[in-house]
Amino acid sequence: MSLNKLTIRQAARGLRAKQFSSVDITTACLDAIREKNRDMHAFLEIFEDDALDAARRADDMLAGDNTLPPLLGIPLAIKDNILIKGKHCTAGSRMLKQYIASYDATAITKLKRQGAVLLGKTNLDEFAMGSSTEHSAFGPTKNPHDVTRVPGGSSGGSAAAVAADMCLGALGSDTGGSIRQPASFCGTVGFKPTYGSVSRHGLIAMASSLDVIGPMTKTVNDARIMFSVIMGKDVLDSTSVDINYLVASERSEDDRPDQSSALHGLRIGLPREYFAQGLDKDVERAVRAAESALTRAGAELIDISLPHSSYALSTYYIIVSSEISANMARYDGVRYGYRTETAQTLTDAYMNSRAQGLGSEVKRRIMLGTYALSAGYYDAYYANAQRVRALISRDFEEAFGHVDVIMGPTTPTPAFLLNERTDNPLSMYLADIYTVAVNMAGLPALSLPIGYVKKKGSVLPIGLQLIGPKKEDARLLSVGRGVEAVISSPRHPEFAV
Amino acid sequence: MAISRRDVEHIAQLARIMLSEEEKSLFEKELSAILEFVAALTRLDTRVVAPMTGGISAQNIMRHDEKRDDGLHDAPAELVDAAPEKREGWITIKRIF
C-alpha cells in the first residue's frame, strides 16, 4: 500500500516501528499532490521544501525516542483561511491574493509543536462562504469521486485532499457545515467541535459566534487524535472554552479492542424533521440501513422532534450575513490585502477596493447583513433571528434530556454537479439544511461515510451526521468510532460492493 | 418582501461597495428572493424569548495587567508591513475630501 493512503494512526505506529520514515510518507503525499492536483485543484499552494525539512526533523527525533507526540512527522493539509506565519493566506479571495500571514494561528502553533508536517494550503469558497468551493477566486476544487462534481464546501480543498490521499489529514473550518458537508460529499470523516473548544486565533473570521476549526480525516480515530492536539482554552481567544476531555484516558480509548461496545444501550435520537421533504431517496435508504446495523449492535433508536428545524436555515442566513457584514468591514484596502488603483478619495478607495477585491457571494452576504442590521430593520431581522436561535438551541437541550446522541443524514443529497447551483443562491444554501442548526447551538457534530450510491454512472459517498451535547466531544467521538466499526464503509468506491 | 433598486443602492453605500448596474439588477432580484425566504421567521411569536447573542454564555474575562509572552511582540511592525501602501512605518491612505 502506498504510504499516502495510511491513516494517521497507522502512520504513527509505522514511524515508531521504523517501518518507514516521515520523509517517505511526506514524499508519497507530495507525489500524490503532483499527480492529482492539476485535475483536482485541491491545493492552492504547496510547501515542498518546508514539508521535507519538517519531515527530516521529525525523523531525527523519531530515531531517538518512541514516546513522542502522535502527530510527529504526519503530513497534513491546511485550509487557506488558517494563518501560517510567513505563508500566503488568501482565504480563496482576490482581496488577500498577496497577503502573507504575520503570525501562526493557535491551531497551527499546536500542530508545529507536535512536529506535524504541513504540506500546503487548500482551496475554499471565498472567505469560507459557500457550499461547493466554486466561490473560490482561484477556481473550483473537483470531487475525487467524480471530477464533474463539486467536493462540497467551504472546506472542499481539504476534503478532496484527504479523500484523494494527498495528505493523511487536514484542518477545515465550520460555520454552518463547512467541515461536515464536504466530508460527506467526498467520503471522509469531518468533525466540527463544540464552539470555542478550538481557538479561533488566526482563523480568518467569517461569523464569529459560529466559526470553529476542526479535523478532516480518513477515520474517526484520526479525527480524535487531531482534535486532542488542537483543542483547549487559549488566552488569545476570549470565547475559547475548556471541555470535558480526559487526556489521561487516551491510551485505553485508543486500544479498546471492541469499539462497538460504545453503542450498547446507547440512546440515539432520530429527528423526524431530518427525514422530511427534500431528502434524496438513496441517501435516506443508506441512513435507514445504518439504523438497522446500530440496532443490531445494541443501540436504542428513538423518534424525536426538533420543532424549530424548519426555521434553522432562515435564522442562520440572517445571523451569518449580519456577522459577515461586520467582520468584512476590515477589508477596506488600507491595512492589508488588495488596494484599488482607481480612486481619488478615501471613500472611493474603500468602495472600489471592495468592488474589485471581493466576489459575488461575499458581496451578496455583506449586502444582506448590512440590510438586516440597518436602522428600521434590525428588530425584524437580526434581533428576531437571535431569539429564534435561542429556540433552536433549546430544542437540542430538550432532546438531549432523553437521548445521548442525535443522528441523521449530513446532507439531503450526494455531491451535485459543478455549475448546477451557482446561479441560484437559495438552492446552494439548501445543501446545509441539516448542518446549520448545530452551529447555532454551538454543539459538536461528526460526519462519517456510511456507503455509496450510484447517480448517473458515478459512485458517490454518503455521510451520516452524529450530534452530541455541548462539550461532550470525547463521548461523541467514541460513539463515532463505534458506528464506524459497525458500518464499515470502504474509503474508495472501487472497493464498494 | 421585495427590495427596490434604491434600497440596493442605499445598502451598497452603507456597505462601502461600488456596484455595477448589472450587479444592482442582480442583487435587487436575489436579495428580494432571500428576504422572501427568511420572512418565515416573522411568523414566529418570539416576544417572550431571550435572544442568544453569541456562541457561549458571555462573561467578562479578566487578567492581571502584565506582559505575557504570546509570541506576538514582533507583530506590530509586521502588521504595518502587510499594508498595501506604507511609508516609514506608517500606512498611507488617499485624501479624505
What is this entry, summarized?
The complex is a heterodimer of chains A (497) and B (97). By secondary structure, chain A is of the alpha/beta class. Chain A is built from 16 helices and eleven strands.
Provide structural commentary.
Chain A is α/β, with parallel strands linked by helices and 497 residues long. Chain A is 38% helix and 13% strand. An 11-stranded mixed beta sheet of chain A has the order 1-3-2-4-6-5-10-11-9-7-8, sandwiched between helices. Chain A is globular and about 65 Å long. Chain B is built from 3 helices and 2 strands. Chain B has a two-stranded antiparallel ribbon with strand order 1-2. In chain B, helix 1 packs across helix 2. The interface between A and B is large, with 72 and 54 residues.
Q: How many DSSP H or I helices of chain A? A: 16
CA gyration radius of chain B, whole angstroms: 23 Å
pLDDT under 50 segments of chain B (min length 5)? none
| Percent strand of chain B | under 5%
CA-to-CA gap between the ends of chain A?
Answer: 21 Å
What's the helix-strand series of chain A?
HHEHEHEHEHEEHHEHEHHHHEHHEEH
Order of helices and strands of chain B: HHHEE
Spatial strand sequence of the major β-sheet of chain B: 1-2
